[in-house]
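To fix ideas, we quote verbatim one protein's residues and fold tokens.
>
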Amino acid sequence: MIRIVSLGLSSVLLSLLLGGCTIHQSVGDSFGSYVSEPDGQNFKPVGYRWDYENAALIYVYRPATQWSMDELETPSFNVDGERLFNIKGGGYTWYEMEPGEYDVVIRRGLLGLEGVGEFVIKRVAQLRLEVKPGKVYYLRYSEIDPPSIQPDLEEIPLGDGPLQLVAPSIALSELPVTKMIHHGRDRLKPRPPAEDEMLEHVFDGNPGAADDSTTDESGAKAKPRTKAEEWWPF
């Protein structure tokens, strides 16, 4: 049965590719922790083994909860339109990021297929993250237990639904029980300005529209969401 479904999806993806459509998919990489838990090394801080003079460091993690560990299919973590990995319960990874702004999106799909072109099955969360060299950021994804306000973040934990930029005190109390996801440890570059303006046009429908999203001193900015886009884990 699984083989039949896989062959069917492959046929659909091939026909869409031949038609020139952009396909958002994570086929073969979307299995949840119920099927395959993260099996990398236990959490270990990067320390000073990164280019802190010219880049920022970002940890992305998902606490191990009953929800996340019983999940059959995981959501994908995307930066500037590119899927980097699917975020399993109890897993973490990290990236170096060159200074600038990045658009971070969490998507959920069905059997690895997340959308075609501008159509996306479910956009769970989206925020704009501005990073600065020498700084360390912690992005936490969890559907059921949003973090409490902590004084060591400039203002408050900021994000969109289950995706939150959190204080080090929160992250470093949860990261030690996570394991490395077999993706990451790369260096990301911000989108060129021309492409960024095109992205704003797609999301806002008007390249000259005022930016009414919220932001804080930590550099994260959440995109405005309509009532129809309110967060739900499915």
Q: What stands out?
A: The CA atoms of residues 101 and 130 lie 4 Å apart. The helical segments are 2-18, 66-69, 168-174, 193-204.
